[in-house]
């Protein structure tokens, strides 16, 4: 079966190791040992899932982000290394990490952005919102597994709908949907067939949710606070204009490890 998977050999080794519950070193040392019928069937099942282009993160049920393990399902986006740029930018712009900061994560998904920040900011508390109640279940489970449930709270909300005007935050962070609907056919099957469309697509140009976020964000940002939003690598000028039109002028662009435009820091 030809599944056109670029890292097929690497994926196969990982799947076999996972099926046999062995480490990469064990695989290298015992790669020629016989397997039982039960083990063989488990390997075939995992192979079939991957050949159907199910993401490795969903097969394993988890993904590493910021050196932390996060539970992943088909109800959430898979955390991506590129998004770690948002954490780096936030931390570089916090003068004192030992402050009692309040963080809002809009469209929290697995909770990876909020929870990674809480790990680094020991006195901070945070609220993660999402339109998906199923995603929020996963985010809560991740907060519990990271021993952060006493500092991380979650609620269902379509952007600002369920927040109170009295809520205000030092840091507002978000990885919103930013793929244009016309780009769907260009996405890999792992993304378009397995990840939630509501977390991917945002109007024809991928900009609709930035407009919704920008319209009310000033109401919830403390004086001197910061906003960090992930962007598509071609969207910097358009997203900057959206936030400029909303009254923000102190906006800087930051790139990821591949030198691609990745997020805007708005103060």
Write up this protein.
By secondary structure, the protein is of the alpha/beta class. It has two domains: 8-52, no CATH class; 62-266, Vaccinia Virus protein VP39 (Rossmann fold, 3-Layer(aba) Sandwich). 37% of the residues lie in helices and 19% in strands. It is built from ten helices and nine strands. The protein has helices spanning 8-20, 24-30, 37-51, 56-60, 84-92, 112-120, 133-145, 189-192, 208-220, 236-245; strands spanning 62-65, 68-71, 102-106, 125-130, 152-156, 169-174, 221-230, 251-255, 261-266. β8 and β9 (261-266) form a beta hairpin. α1 runs antiparallel to α3 (37-51) and α5 runs parallel beside α6. The protein is globular and about 65 Å long. The protein starts with 7 loop residues before the first helix and ends with a strand. The model has no long low-confidence stretch (mean pLDDT 92).
Helical coverage, percent range = 25-40%
Low-confidence stretches: none
What structural class do helix, strand and pairing data support?
alpha/beta
By CATH, the superfamily of the largest domain comes out as Vaccinia Virus protein VP39
Q: Largest beta sheet: what is the strand line-up? A: 5-4-3-6-7-9-8
Total of DSSP H or I helical runs spanning 4+ residues: 10
Question: What portion of residues belong to β-strands?
Answer: 15-25%
Radius of gyration: 20 Å
CATH architecture designation of the largest domain:
3-Layer(aba) Sandwich
Question: What is the arithmetic mean of pLDDT?
Answer: 92
CATH topology of the largest domain: Rossmann fold
Q: Report the biggest beta sheet as strand number plus sense, adding barrel if it closes.
A: 7 strands, mixed
Task: Count the beta strands.
Answer: 9
| Highest CATH level, the class of the largest domain | Alpha Beta
- What is the approximate shape? globular
Oligomeric assembly? single chain
């Amino acid at each position: 079966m030809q599944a056109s998977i670029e890292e097929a050999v690497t994926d196969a080794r990982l799947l076999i190791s996972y099926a046999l519950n062995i480490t990469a070193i064990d695989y290298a040392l015992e790669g020629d040992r016989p397997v039982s019928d039960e083990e063989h069937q488990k390997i075939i099942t995992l192979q079939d899932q991957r050949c159907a282009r199910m993401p490795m993160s969903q097969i394993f049920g988890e993904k590493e982000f910021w050196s932390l393990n996060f539970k992943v399902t088909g109800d959430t986006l898979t955390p991506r290394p590129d998004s770690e740029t948002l954490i780096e930018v936030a931390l570089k712009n916090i003068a004192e990490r030992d402050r009692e900061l309040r963080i809002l994560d809009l469209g929290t998904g697995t909770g990876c952005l909020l929870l990674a920040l809480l790990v680094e900011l020991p006195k901070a508390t945070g609220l993660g919102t999402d339109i998906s109640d199923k995603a929020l279940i996963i985010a809560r489970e991740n907060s519990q597994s990271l021993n952060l449930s006493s500092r991380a709270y979650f609620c269902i909300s379509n952007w600002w709908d369920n927040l109170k005007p009295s809520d205000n935050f030092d840091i507002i962070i978000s990885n919103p949907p930013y793929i244009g609907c016309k780009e769907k056919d260009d996405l890999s099957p792992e993304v378009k067939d397995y990840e939630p469309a509501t977390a991917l697509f945002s109007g024809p140009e991928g900009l609709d949710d930035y407009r919704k976020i920008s319209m009310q964000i000033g109401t919830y940002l403390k004086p001197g606070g910061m906003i960090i939003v992930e962007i598509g690598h071609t969207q910097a000028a358009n997203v900057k204009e959206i936030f400029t039109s909303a009254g923000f002028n102190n906006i800087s662009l930051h790139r990821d490890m591949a030198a691609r435009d990745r997020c805007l820091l708005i103060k």
